[in-house]
Amino acid sequence: MSRILVIESSARQQGSVSRELTQQFIANWQAAHPADQVQVRDLAVEPVPHLDATLLGGWMTPSEQQNDAEKAALARSNQLTDELLAADVLVLAAPMYNFAIPSTLKAWLDHVLRAGVTFKYTETGPQGLLTGKRAFVLTARGGIYAGSALDHQEPYLRQALAFIGIHDVQFIHAEGLNLGAEFSEKGLAQAKAKLAEVA
């Protein structure tokens, strides 16, 4: 039995293509692996705070010296990190906002990319600690950006995931969604076809 952690980041609950892709992924995965556990964390419904002095204090201040806010920030970060540590498969649903990922997803990453927990510093440089995990990134894009200099999603997420040891990463892009019906239908169909091959 595997554990699947799904991170939703679209600001929209209705009409969201990334959420549509997520639902298909979950349905396909559960059909192929009915015993697996799927956990969904929705960053639009329960956004996590952005990195600030309080969270840094929770990480760096000895427990006996932490104030209540720092303790709460550390507990939240620990919960998010524990969910990731427990997962065998990570699914990130990431619509493209202004050429990059939603700020809510960046905030989540800031909580879980933690020295000594998901990576460590060594004499030869940083080393990821989350080896053996798989990741899928489902994107929704108004234009067509894959492979271009304007795609700041895939390179960043590949680097961030590799930094913590996740190298088995598959991107599934739904592109051209705002370029008219023909492009939108084609882009969504291509993404769903790739989803059908997952699992």
Provide structural commentary.
The chain is 40% helix and 21% strand. β4 and β5 (125-128) form a beta hairpin. It has one domain (3-197): Rossmann fold, CATH 3.40.50. The relative contact order is 0.17. The protein has 6 helices and 7 strands; from the N terminus they run βαβααβαβββαβα. It starts with a strand and ends with a helix. It is of the alpha/beta class. The strands form 2 sheets. A 5-stranded parallel sheet has the order 2-1-3-6-7, sandwiched between helices. The protein has a two-stranded antiparallel ribbon with strand order 4-5.
CATH superfamily caption: Flavodoxin domain
Question: What is the domain tally?
Answer: 1
Shape-level CATH architecture: 3-Layer(aba) Sandwich
Q: Let me know the number of strands.
A: 7
Describe the largest sheet: 5 strands, parallel
Structural class: alpha/beta
| N→C terminal distance | 13 Å
Shape: globular
Catalytic activity: N,N-dimethyl-1,4-phenylenediamine + anthranilate + 2 NAD(+) = 2-(4-dimethylaminophenyl)diazenylbenzoate + 2 NADH + 2 H(+); 2 a quinone + NADH + H(+) = 2 a 1,4-benzosemiquinone + NAD(+)
Function: Also exhibits azoreductase activity. Catalyzes the reductive cleavage of the azo bond in aromatic azo compounds to the corresponding amines. Quinone reductase that provides resistance to thiol-specific stress caused by electrophilic quinones.
EC number: 1.6.5.-, 1.7.1.17
Cofactor: FMN
